């Protein structure tokens, strides 16, 4: 079989993956805190034909996907929502959230938080936002006549609760987590990432604005960092590459058919 058939086939497979990644980026252009992905290619092991005084003679055997990386270096733009519980990280860092049922912890940059019926600050799927001493809970004082009249969240993550009797109390401080290699985080769906050792968590979660972490902006959300112009350009490039490699397979097939006809003749 002609080597070009395998080479062309490998390219079709990899460019299909590339198109899949681009399609997912475009699909998430309006997903809060979504980070676009890109495919990095690498050539496969070459076939050595021999050696000469000028060097080794080799023919490449195709292409493979070396990695698919998320672009955490480019933040999405911050947009105002006017909702106090909506939070955005202006700079580095991830919110730490915990599943109250399983106790499993995750990280996210999606700050579409609300206050549930028990007063906990939670994600859209019920994960509780973590602070310095556990889950952040906005609750009443010990005075049964005093009810929560409002709350505010500072740039350092401090949650201050106001009551109907004009008193205030701290409901804790939201912590942020940073990583040496966030690309090693595993996507779990619902804008969540699992905590993996390979990502290199930087010690314990720390207060916003410290240890190289960004600050928290209340009433804002970080939007997707997908650049539609770039994605559409990449899509055209990938489609043209796919088409060109399809031509390689068609040409190789024509050559094989010619050889078969010659043998039969």
If you had to describe this structure to a student in words, what would you say it looks like?
The chain has 265 residues and is an alpha+beta fold. The protein has 2 domains: 3-69 and 226-264, no CATH class; 78-222, no CATH class. The chain has 2 helices and 20 strands. The protein has helices spanning 3-27, 228-264; strands at 37-43, 47-52, 55-59, 63-70, 78-80, 87-90, 94-98, 105-108, 114-115, 121-122, 128-131, 134-135, 148-153, 158-163, 168-173, 176-177, 186-189, 192-194, 215-218, 220-222. The strands form 7 sheets. Strands 7, 8, 11, 12, 16, 17 and 18 form a 7-stranded antiparallel β-sheet that branches. It is elongated, with a radius of gyration of 27 Å. The chain starts with a helix and ends with a helix.
The number of helical segments is: 2
Shape: elongated
Number of domain modules: 2
Strand content: 25-35%
**Class from helix and strand fractions:** alpha+beta
Keywords:
265 residues; alpha+beta; seven-stranded antiparallel sheet; three-stranded antiparallel sheet; 2 helices; 20 strands; elongated
How is this fold's topology laid out?
Layout: H1 3-27, E1 37-43, E2 47-52, E3 55-59, E4 63-70, E5 78-80, E6 87-90, E7 94-98, E8 105-108, E9 114-115, E10 121-122, E11 128-131, E12 134-135, E13 148-153, E14 158-163, E15 168-173, E16 176-177, E17 186-189, E18 192-194, E19 215-218, E20 220-222, H2 228-264
Antiparallel strand pairs: 1-4, 2-3, 5-20, 6-19, 7-8, 7-11, 7-16, 8-18, 9-10, 11-12, 13-14, 14-15, 17-18
């Amino acid at each position: 079989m002609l080597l070009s058939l395998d080479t062309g086939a490998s390219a079709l497979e990899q460019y299909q993956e590339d198109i899949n990644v681009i399609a997912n980026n475009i699909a998430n252009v309006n997903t809060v805190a979504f980070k676009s992905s890109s495919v990095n290619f690498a050539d496969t092991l070459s076939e050595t034909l021999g050696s000469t005084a000028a060097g080794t003679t080799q023919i490449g055997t195709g292409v493979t996907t070396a990695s698919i990386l998320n672009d955490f270096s480019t933040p999405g733009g911050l947009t105002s929502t006017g909702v106090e519980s909506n939070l955005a990280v202006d700079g580095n860092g991830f919110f730490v959230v915990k599943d109250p049922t399983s106790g499993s912890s995750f990280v996210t940059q999606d700050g579409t938080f609300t206050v549930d019926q028990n007063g906990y600050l939670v994600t859209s799927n019920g994960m509780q936002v973590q602070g310095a001493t556990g889950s952040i809970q906005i609750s009443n004082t010990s005075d049964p006549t005093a009810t929560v009249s409002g709350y505010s969240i500072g740039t350092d993550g401090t949650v201050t609760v106001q009551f109907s009797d004009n008193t205030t109390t701290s409901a804790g401080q939201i912590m942020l987590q940073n990583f040496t290699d966030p690309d090693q985080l595993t996507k779990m769906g619902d804008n969540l990432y699992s905590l993996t050792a390979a990502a290199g968590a930087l010690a314990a979660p720390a207060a916003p604005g410290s240890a190289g972490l960004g600050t928290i902006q209340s009433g804002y959300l970080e939007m997707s960092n997908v650049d539609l112009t770039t994605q559409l350009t990449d899509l055209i490039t990938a489609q043209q590459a796919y088409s060109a490699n399809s031509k390689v397979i068609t040409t190789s097939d024509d050559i094989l058919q010619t050889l078969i006809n010659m043998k039969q003749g």
